[in-house]
Amino acid sequence: MAIAVQSNSVIVQFLSDIPIVTRCILFILLLWCISRYTQLTLLSIVVSWWDSRSHSYEFWRMFGLFMVVHYNSLQTVLMLFYQVYTNSCNLELDYFVGDSVNYSFFLLFCMTTTTILASLSVALFEFRIATLFPAFEAILLYTWSVTNTNTSVNYIIFSVQGKYLPLINLLIHILDHSPHELSMMLFGYTSAYIYCCLDTWTFGPLFGFMTNKPNYGYPTFKDNHFKGRHLLMRLFGSGAKAHPPVAQPHRGAAKSTTSATNFKGQGRRLHDGKAIPLARRSFLTPSTAPRCVELIRSASQFSSSISPNRLVIVDFFATWCGPCKMLAPILEQYASQHPNVDFYKLDVDHLSTIASTYSVTSMPTVIVFKKGTELARIVGVNPTAIKKAIQSNS
User: Fold this and answer.
1) What is the pLDDT of residues 194-206, one digit of tens each?
2) Is 2-210 a domain of CATH 3.10.290.10?
3) I need a surface site. Which of 87, 156, 314, 388 has the fewest CB within 10 A?
4) 3-class secondary structure for the chain?
5) What is the domain partition of the chain in residue ranges?
6) pLDDT confidence of residue 68
7) Whole-number mean pLDDT of the chain?
8) 197 is catalytic
9) Does the active-site annotation cover 321?
């Protein structure tokens, strides 16, 4: 009996750790699979062919096709669910920093754009579409890849960078002779690319590749041109500027293989696979927290800062480092939660001598000091490890 109760609590804990939008997506997909397996017509009202609509205003049928999953075995279903869970969790928690409004707006925009492209193909080329789920997968995959360009991913037996995954996936479908899925994937890639262009206010990574600009068009943490919350605040005439919400460590989420940003490279996003939810706040008004992390401006200040007989956290960062920008609000949150710990940040480009002295070659790197002695070192955006280091050394 005790084992059963413990198992149930673990399942409940796991489900509660999944961010809200991703949880809704998985629930809808599960509902569709159950409906199909039991041969119920429960969801027939939300999915259909374009030419079988009873009324012209049944617009929801186009969006319903995004949840139509075609599968031949339980293994296929589990793989599809895992891919959606992993990519959606990482996007919602990392790129959108757990902001359900921004992430929902992103999905709605991309799905609407995809349905427009699909409708045009039906009208102009009499293209019959049974499902838009491959397009939904492509939206998640492409957006994840451009926000994790330098992340190493184990693909079958090869290790490839994240930015190449959409191309590899495209080539596999070409070799597999799946013209329908290939077309849906292209619709999804196109929709996600358009969103990327609008959010970065550029012509996108493809234009950067054609013009020999390696980092052009890739989204970063600071890009806020086409975020849903920002647009809603402008629409409702709010005078406040839409800043990204303050993040704090979460208990668990999808894991992904990552590596730290190289010191001289142009790293993008880095995380430890842990979910980073929002602090409680209102629907539109973003929360703000006092900036409690002090910037170290000189070598003498650094020496005096790490000398006291108390725990000192130093964040070695770079202004060009995307993962560093993601870690900053987390450290600010920790600083407000731990008044007995001193938090500092050090720009490695301005104080490169100190960075070299402590062999800091990857950003972000967080070093824990006490009485000038290094106690722990965390490389990358790893909120859980930082919190454990604070608790174990306090």
Assistant:
1) 999 998 888 988 8
2) no
3) 156
4) CHHHHHHHHHHHHHHHHCCHHHHHHHHHHHHHHHHHHCCCCCCCCCCCCHHHCCCCCCCHHHHHHHHCCCCCCHHHHHHHHHHHHHHHHHHHHHHCCCCHHHHHHHHHHHHHHHHHHHHHHHHHHCCCCCCCHHHHHHHHHHHHHHHCCCCEEEECCEEEEHHHHHHHHHHHHHHCCCHHHHHHHHHHHHHHHHHHHHHHCCCCHHHHHHCCCCCCCCCCCCCCCCCHHHHHHHHCCCCCCCCCCCECCCCCCCCCCCCCEECCCCCCCCCCCCCCCECCCCCCCCCCCCCCCEECCCHHHHHHHCCCCCCEEEEEECCCCHHHHHHHHHHHHHHHHCCCCEEEEEECCCCHHHHHHCCCCEECEEEEEECCEEEEEEECCCHHHHHHHHHHHC
5) 2-210, 294-393
6) 74
7) 76
8) no
9) yes
